[in-house]
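About this split. The held-out portion is used to measure sequence recovery: a designer receives only the C-alpha cells and must propose an amino acid at every position. Recovery is the fraction of positions where the proposal matches the reference. Here is one held-out target exactly as it appears in the evaluation file.
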C-alpha cells in the first residue's frame, strides 16, 4: 500500500502541530513529513531545479513593489519543489505522511501577505498550477478551526511570536480574519476541482486523539464511518 499524504491547516492557535504529533505517534508507519531547507546542502539540487519557475515571480516582485522577502521566496521554492521531494520519501513508505505547514499553508501565507505581485497574471498562473498539482498529490486536507476568542487566548499564552499576539481583541480578530480569507480563497479553488477531501474539526470541542481517530477512520476507507464535519468552515 502506498503512503497517504495529508496536510493539516488552520490559523495560529488551532493546534496543528499537536495534531500532527498525535497522528505520528498512533501508528509506527505514520510520520511528520520532512521539509525542504535552503540551508541544507543536500537539498540544493531541489532549490536549483526550482529556479526557472521561481525566478520570474521574484523578478516580477522587483517591478511591483514591495518585493517578496526572503521568507516568502522560500515558500515559493518549497511549494514548487516539495512535491518531488516527498515522492522520493514516499516510495517505500506505507504509512500516513503528515504535512504540518505544508504547501496549502505556504500558499495561504503568500496570499495573506497581500503583496501587489500576488495580483499579477504571472503569480495567478503559478498559483493555479500549484493548487491543481497539490490537489492531486494530497490525499486529504484537515482544516482545524476554533472560536476566535479561543484562538487569541492560545496565541497570547504561548511563547511563539505572532502578528496577532498582544494586540487588542479587534485587531487580533482582523489579523485572524485575513488569514482565514487567504485559506478561503484556496478552498474555493480546491472545491471547484473536487479534490482532495477537506475535513473540518473544531479543536475547542474535540481532543487531538479524537480528531486523529476520525481522520484514520476516513482514510482507512471504512464505508460506515463519517467525519464529524466535512468541508471548510469560513
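Reference sequence for scoring:
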Amino acid at each position: 500500500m502506498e503512503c497517504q499524504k495529508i496536510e493539516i491547516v488552520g490559523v495560529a492557535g488551532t493546534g496543528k502541530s499537536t495534531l500532527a504529533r498525535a497522528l505520528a505517534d498512533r501508528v509506527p508507519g505514520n510520520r511528520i513529513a520532512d521539509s525542504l531547507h535552503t540551508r541544507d546542502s543536500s537539498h540544493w539540487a531541489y532549490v536549483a531545479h526550482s529556479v526557472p519557475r521561481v525566478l520570474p515571480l521574484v523578478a516580477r516582485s522587483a517591478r511591483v513593489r514591495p518585493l517578496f522577502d526572503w521568507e516568502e521566496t522560500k515558500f515559493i521554492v518549497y511549494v514548487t519543489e516539495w512535491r518531488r521531494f516527498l515522492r522520493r520519501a514516499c516510495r517505500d513508505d506505507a504509512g500516513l505522511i503528515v504535512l504540518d505547514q505544508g504547501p496549502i499553508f505556504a500558499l495561504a501565507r503568500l496570499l495573506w501577505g497581500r503583496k501587489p505581485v500576488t495580483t499579477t497574471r504571472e503569480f495567478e498562473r503559478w498559483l493555479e498550477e500549484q493548487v491543481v498539482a497539490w490537489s492531486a498529490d494530497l490525499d486529504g486536507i484537515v482544516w482545524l478551526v476554533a472560536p476566535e476568542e479561543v484562538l487569541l487566548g492560545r496565541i497570547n499564552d504561548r511563547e511563539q511570536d505572532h502578528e496577532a499576539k498582544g494586540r487588542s481583541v479587534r485587531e487580533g480578530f482582523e489579523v485572524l480574519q485575513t488569514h482565514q480569507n487567504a485559506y478561503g480563497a484556496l478552498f474555493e479553488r480546491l472545491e471547484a476541482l473536487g479534490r482532495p477531501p477537506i475535513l473540518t474539526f473544531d479543536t475547542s470541542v474535540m481532543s487531538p486523539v479524537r480528531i486523529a481517530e476520525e481522520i484514520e477512520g476516513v482514510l482507512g476507507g471504512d464505508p460506515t464511518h463519517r467525519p464529524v464535519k466535512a468541508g471548510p468552515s469560513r
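Annotator remark: The domain at 4-219 is CATH 3.40.50.300 (Rossmann fold).
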